[in-house]
Structure formats: C-alpha cells, structure tokens
Design brief:
The structure is a single chain. The protein has about 70 residues and is mainly α. It has four helices and no strands. The chain has two domains: about 1-35; about 40-74, no CATH class. The chain has helices at about 5-20, 45-55, 55-60, 65-74. The mean pLDDT is about 85.
C-alpha cells in the first residue's frame, strides 16, 4: 500500500520534471517541503470546491500553515 506522503512525493517529482522540461524558464522551480492531506464529508464538497476556486484570495498575507489552520478550524 502506498502512503499519502509517498504518493504526494511521487506526484511532486513527476510534476517538477514535466514543468522544467515544458517551461525551461522555470528551471529553478521547486515545491515547498511537506504536504497535508485530509478527508471531508460529502456534505462539504461544495464548500471545498468554492475554497479551491477562490484559493488565490485566501493566500493574501497568509502563510501556508496559517491558511491550513484557518481551513481546519471551519
């Protein structure tokens, strides 16, 4: 069985390789360290989709850990 951390690591690795080959100007691209994963109930899907749709607005002035804590408190 593949753990979440390993799965995300493999996705990041593949995406980084693709980004750097398709967009040479992004040769210095890198992912932040770590990842987070959580599950939601089906009743929360619409709210999560809205959150993702407006994701850029959520990061103004917030770090990833601050945003994560705020999201988890909802």
């Amino acid at each position: 069985m593949l753990g979440v951390s390993k799965l995300v690591g493999e996705l990041k690795k593949g995406a980084s390789s693709w980004i750097k080959s398709e967009f040479p100007s992004l040769g210095a691209f890198y992912w932040q360290h770590g990842c987070a994963a959580c599950s939601i109930s089906p009743s929360q899907r619409a709210g999560l989709k809205e959150y993702i749709r407006n994701q850029v607005d959520h990061y103004h002035g917030e770090t990833f850990p601050e945003d994560s804590r705020r999201l988890l408190q909802k």
